[in-house]
Specification:
The complex is a heterodimer. By secondary structure, chain A is an alpha/beta fold. Chain A is built from ten helices and nine strands. A five-stranded parallel beta sheet of chain A has the order 7-6-5-8-9. In chain A, strands 2-1-3-4 form a four-stranded parallel beta sheet. Chain B has two domains: about 80 residues, Urease, subunit C, domain 1 (Roll); about 300 residues, TIM Barrel (Alpha-Beta Barrel), CATH 3.20.20.140. In chain B, helix 1 crosses helix 2. Classes of the chains: A alpha/beta, B alpha/beta.
Chain lengths: ~325, ~425
């Protein structure tokens, strides 16, 4: 989706990892690396976004993502406003009305999470010039900052992407995280990206996104350098997708022993929040291979990077036109 | 009533294959004579159709007019006038209004409103079951007497095959053809063709199997009932293949396609542009090709606009959250001509898909140009270019997926029963 790039190919919104060049993806990771130092300092602030207003607009609940976006904005010295909109309160007011009202409050950036695929694109195509949109998750479509913080975490542990085999395990069908990861890892030149799930949790023609498809867990994990477990939403048990959590865990739950086919130094990741004993065993999640908590910390640096890049582009564009 | 002469146009009658320059003489709402050398006729009014085409007014087999029940989107008068301006003289209206067309009184109301519009004719289809709920038979005899030429499931397939069988048998009793929607609704929980595009966009897909499973269930029921069955809005290659096989034993089976399926594909939805949110969904380029071939081969005999006007708010929002359907009246004629231009189908068969074929299905008097026929006629300039812009659309629904296209062909005069219901000559 080109709406996120300006005419010079710079990020003016961040909506998806699809179609981004390896140069741009690497630039995000490098920028995040430069902010990583800031987080470790005792005074954890840089004045890059002083005087700017960031509105976190969450139509779906979230703790981790919203909090790390908030922290990232604050560490860049921005003013942050959190607007939690339960889907029921939206009734009567259209998305567009809400957006226009919030824009009237002179926001510079919206961080948006919404249950509908394409919602972030919708907002980005309706905001005023100079206002940026960051996608914090839209339906099943994309969660690009999650994918970039995962890529950041992988790079810190494994270095170059080229030789890596990365296995994503779980509910691929309903996962915006998986889609964004696939595009990001492929864009960064990963050697092989695999998805592992029962057929009910695989979307049609997922191979077309550039992945190897496995329905058998141990085959899917063989010689993997990175294993990513996805959260299995409890509500998926209501329909005809899976018989039970127990059966899912027996065949697709990550445990130490099932990980034996992966490389000995394979790292284990999870975007959170974890369902212990459903998609991942506690011992593994808390064990030495797990980098799950690191992912959370890295999320701040990556979100700072994206915010700085996007508002940098918007500011330059405003300067150009002035 | 006035005596009218349409002089020296190219007369195209798909029903008879007639294609000659000549005159059409109209009196008392009917064509009294036509051809290159007509008998003595003293017109009160003559229209010079030199360089123009004289064709039967179009019959659009599926157009939602949104009245009664959803007049914030459109109404009978607005859409009947838009139709007339687009060379359409008959709008066939599915029964899924609010209230549903399952009683004569609703038919009467619609006809009353349509008469007031003094534009295109409106032909309501009766509901196959009461409230389209698929449980109890609707009063087919009363609906037929009130003016419904056929019954329809209104886009909501009858789930219970026994109810479907009885409904078809009952319709057959009164000589009513039945228009069915080939769809398995359980499989159809989505908003775009299931496949790589929907997967990329993170949109729930509707597999082709939703159509073939629907057909697979309905075809044997249609056969056992012996009713005259027509399938609406085919969208896939596999669907076409199933129908083609069934037609070998039951050549009376028929089907139609929405015009947008012949031009657009799932790829058009890549930017989440909600104008491309339609049901059945836009499918792959192979499906589009198969639909075009089915048209040429005659497996699909009818094209409709599948007109579904919406107010702007209904299409404003993330793709899956918006209302499905495209506004189609204004572009129907031009797109039919474009099929000919693109050599998908020859001119007379192309015109037949929107004139004689739907007339034949519903037993309508219109849809042909012949002595004695009812004078529902469009005089068109097939080459007149126009930009499809919201302003150019006469329908209240501006949700056309063809906005931005340059199209050719406009109706300059439209006559319903010999009465002019549209004149664009001032614009010429």
């Amino acid at each position: 989706m080109s709406v996120q790039l300006d005419e010079q190919g710079r990020l003016q919104h961040f909506l998806t990892t699809e179609g981004l060049s390896s140069t741009l993806l690497t630039q995000i990771l490098d920028t995040a690396e430069s902010f990583f130092g800031v987080i470790d300092k005792s005074v954890k602030k840089v004045p890059l976004l002083r005087g700017r207003t960031v509105i976190n607009l969450f139509f779906e609940s979230s703790t981790r993502t919203r909090t790390t976006f908030e922290l990232a904005a604050k560490r860049l010295s921005a003013d942050v406003l959190n607007v939690d909109v339960g889907t029921t309160t939206v009734k009567g007011e259209s998305l567009l009305d809400m957006l226009q009202n919030l824009q009237a409050m002179q926001a510079d950036m919206f961080v948006i999470r919404h249950s509908a695929s394409g919602a972030a694109e919708f907002f980005a195509s309706h905001v005023n010039p100079g206002v940026a949109v960051l996608n914090a998750g839209d339906g099943w479509h994309a969660h690009p900052t999650q994918a970039m913080l995962d890529a950041f975490t992988i790079r810190r542990h494994k270095g170059d992407f080229e030789p890596l085999r990365i296995a994503i395990v779980g509910d691929i069908r309903h996962s915006r995280v998986a889609r964004s990861q696939i595009h990001a890892f492929n864009g960064l030149g990963a050697g092989e990206v695999r998805v592992v799930a029962p057929a009910t949790l695989l979307p049609t023609d997922i191979e077309s996104l550039g992945v190897q498809v496995y329905t058998d867990l141990s085959a899917g994990l063989r010689d993997a350098d990175v294993v990513i477990a996805l959260r299995l939403q409890r509500e998926r048990m209501q329909g005809a997708l899976l018989p039970s959590e127990a059966e899912y865990f027996r065949h697709y739950g990550l445990t130490e022993s099932r990980l034996s086919s992966a490389k000995p130094d394979a790292i284990v990741m999870h975007p959170g929040p974890i369902n212990r004993g459903v998609e991942i065993d506690s011992a593994l999640a808390d064990g030495p291979r797990s980098v799950i908590l690191e992912q959370v910390t890295n999320g701040i640096a990556v979100r700072m990077a994206v915010m700085a890049m996007v508002l940098g582009t918007q500011a330059e564009a405003a300067g150009d036109s002035a | 009533m006035s005596r009218l002469l349409i002089s020296q146009g190219r007369i195209l009658d798909p029903a008879s294959g007639y294609d000659e320059i000549g005159d059409v003489a109209i009196a008392d709402g009917r064509i009294v004579d036509l051809g290159s050398s007509i008998g003595d006729f003293s017109p009160e009014r003559t229209i010079d159709a030199k360089g123009l085409w004289v064709i039967p007014g179009l019959i659009d087999l599926s157009a939602r007019l949104r009245e009664p029940g959803a007049t914030r989107k459109a109404d009978i008068a607005s859409e009947a006038r838009a139709a007339a301006a687009a060379g359409i003289t008959t709008l066939v209206m599915p029964p899924d209004t609010q209230p549903v067309i399952d009683m004569a009184s609703v038919v009467d109301l619609i006809q009353h409103r349509a008469e007031g519009a003094n534009a295109a004719r409106v032909v309501p289809l009766g509901a196959l079951t009461q409230g389209l709920l698929g449980e109890h038979l609707a009063g087919a005899a009363a609906l037929a007497a009130a003016g419904c030429p056929a019954l329809s499931d209104g886009g909501q397939p009858v789930q219970d095959t026994l109810v479907l069988r009885r409904a078809l048998e009952y319709a057959k009793t009164f000589g009513l053809p039945c228009l069915l929607t080939p769809l398995d609704t359980h499989l159809a929980q989505g908003c775009l063709n299931e496949g790589a595009t929907a997967t990329r966009l993170g949109l729930p897909g509707v597999p082709v199997a939703a159509e073939t499973a629907g057909l697979g269930r309905q075809l044997p029921v249609a056969e056992v009932s012996g009713a005259r069955v027509h399938f609406g809005r085919l969208s896939s290659e596999a669907g076409v293949r199933l129908l083609d096989q069934a037609k070998q034993h039951h050549p009376e089976l028929s089907a139609d396609v929405a015009i947008h399926q012949l031009f657009l594909t799932e790829q058009d939805a890549v930017g989440y542009d909600t104008r491309f949110h339609v049901q059945p969904p836009l499918r792959s380029i192979f499906d589009r090709q198969a639909l075009r071939q089915a048209l040429k081969a005659g497996t699909i005999g009818i094209i409709c606009s599948d007109h579904q006007p919406h107010e702007p708010d209904a299409k404003e929002g993330p793709f899956a959250n918006t209302a499905a359907g495209a506004s189609g009246l204004d572009t129907l004629l031009s797109l039919i001509l474009r099929l000919v231009e693109e050599e998908v189908i020859d001119l007379l068969p192309a015109l037949a898909t929107v004139t004689s074929k739907p007339a034949e299905l519903l037993g309508l008097e219109s849809g042909r140009l012949a002595a004695g026929a009812v004078a529902d006629i469009a005089v068109i300039d097939p080459h007149q270019p126009w930009w499809c812009t919201p302003k150019a659309l006469k329908s209240r629904g501006k949700n056309s997926p063809f906005l931005g296209w340059e199209l050719n062909g406009r109706a300059l005069w439209t006559f319903v029963g010999g009465r002019p219901v549209h004149t664009a000559s001032a614009d010429r």
